[in-house]
Amino acid sequence: MSHLLLTGATGLLGGYLLRDCARHNLELAVVVRSSKRESARQRIESILAGWENQLGYSLPRPVVLEGDLTKPGLGLDTSQRTWIRDHCSGVIHNAASLTFVKTKDGEPFRSNVEGTRHVLELTRDAGIRKFHHVSTAYICGLRTGRVLETELNVGQQLGNVYEESKIESEAMVMEADYLDRPTVFRPGIIIGDSETGFTSTFHGFYSPLRVAFALVDRIAAGDEAGAQYGLQLLSLFQLQGDEQKNFVPVDWVSAFMAAALANPELHGQVYHLTPANAVTITEMTSVMMEVVDTHVQAHPVEANGRSISRSSFEQFFRDQLAVYKSYWRNDPVFDRTNTMAALPDLPCPIVDRDMLIRMCHFAVKARFGSPAPAPIIPKFDVHAHLASRTTATRELNNSAEASTASHIGLRVTGAGGGDWELELRRDRLVAAHPGVMDDTDTLLYLNSHTFQNLVENGTSPEQCLRTGQILIEGKSPCLQETISLIEQVTGKSHQRA
Q: Is there a contact between 122 and 81 (Cβ–Cβ < 8 Å)?
């Protein structure tokens, strides 16, 4: 099966793309760093387990390649790069650093420029020609008036280093002569889920609210905290209140991208993923003022000396948000000709007051992501089980054995699952390679719960086949051959009834 290589899978948009690409039957491989708490695969597993809890059904797992965008070759070893060359037909470059002031370690240029260069080099070396790039509508910089999807660098002044890094990275993609015409997605300011308010990141739109809540438990009830907050926001950024911002719910951005990725006729275009209705700063601050006041009234602070003075509130607010000053300027009008023509039946939801309140309440309830949710550990890990069952690598020792080797695809959806190309010699399982090859004749489907029952609870393969818990796609072996194969994979033999 031909895969798309996705970067930025553990971010907010990346997590939604994992779900929505699965809905469109797009096969994914992801490049992910490990964290202090989780391995690369565990990070992806936690995201997909969260979706499964919400959706009520199991999802396929991408092939996980542990790497680092900021390193040459993405920090991948030779076998991983070979796998990409053999299995991937396209790249979705979604990873980015949303940093507005240059840091000591070189962000955002290290991730957004050097990272993009590394991805492009990997793409070139692997012979991949299809490239789908996530940019931003704000490469427009300080332009006014109408900004076309066909425009990139027209000499505009840029508002911050983030915009500088993103226009440079998009230009690199567009100039790469070893690619087919790239697809470029330029979203506006991505906010949470339009229905639930869910978000896993709390910068950008959420920053003023987060700063206010850093002090909210020290604002006594009746101090008109929300009014203080709203006035400070307008004063700090020297705003009139009628400035317009283009907020877009993450679920719509992801849904649009996945639908476009699944349709080759929509590739090779630039899409402004911006809403039909912009939100004014007055509307935004009104919502946030309401949320602040609601919280203060529900959690009053007694006059015990802990209350913060108005001057201290103002100074803290200014210090924390000065970096965002250019972020809240008035937006130009983003042309959406390509976007509307591509998927006219998938318009951006109207971002109204109720939606913004949902966004804010979710952020407050989630305590702006602190502490981080606990990792979700699968009850049964198919990866670990297959590793214990295999005894050799894919390299066959001699031509005689090579002639007896056969390959069958295995897809296990759900927690701890994945895709594998099973290698058998003389009806013995010797290797399980990540991903499924395009020319695989036979593919077995089951979920991880069924797999666990086969291994631990004595469930018979024949019963699972007859009840549809195991499905076969492509060339179907006879029943006894299939049962024998499943027993090789699970390590359990059963007596036939």
A: yes
Nearest to 58 by CA among 355, 302, 382: 382
Q: Phi, psi at residue 408, to the nearest 5°?
A: -135, 140
Distance of CA 14 to the CA centre of its chain: 1
Q: Is the pTM of this model over 0.85?
A: yes
Query: In the numeric block, which tokens belong to residue 471?
Result: 């499905």
94 Cβ contact list (under 8 Å, min separation 6): 6, 7, 8, 9, 11, 13, 14, 17, 134
For the chain, what are the domain ranges?
A: 3-369, 382-490
146: phi then psi, degrees, rounded to nearest 5: -100, 130
CATH code reported for the domain at 382-490: 3.30.1050.10
Amino acid at 87: H
Nearest to 397 by CA among 436, 365, 369, 425: 425
- Six-digit token pair at 303? 């006059």
Instruction: Give Cα separations from 310 to 234, 238, 398, 400 (angstroms).
Output: 16, 19, 80, 83
One-character DSSP codes across 419-457? EEEEEEETTEEEEEEES--TT-SEEEEEEHHHHHHHHHS
Are 3-369 and 382-490 the same fold in CATH? no
pLDDT in tens, 267-308: 999 999 999 999 999 899 889 888 888 877 777 655 444 556
- The CATH class of the 3-369 domain is alpha beta
* Rounded Cα distance, 156 and 237, in Å: 21
Query: In DSSP terms, which residues pair with 273 in a beta bridge?
Result: 187
Q: List, in order, residues 6 or more apart from 483 with CB less than 8 Å away.
A: 461, 462, 465, 494, 496
> Which H/E stretch holds residue 472?
strand 471-474
Identify whether the C-beta of residue 4 lies closer than 8 Å to the C-beta of residue 90: yes
First to last CA, the chain: 36
41 in Cβ contact with 383 (< 8 Å): yes
- E-only strand ranges, 8-55: 27-32
Please state, in angstroms and rounded to a whole number, the distance separating the CA atoms of residues 489 and 451: 10
User: Contact, 229 vs 213, CB < 8 A?
Assistant: no
Q: How far is CA 233 from CA 23, 37, 318, in A?
A: 41, 36, 8
What pLDDT digit, counting tens, does each position of 192-241 carry? 999 999 999 999 899 888 887 877 656 554 555 555 555 566 666 677 88
Q: To 10 degrees, the CA torsion angle through 320, 323, 324, 327?
A: 180
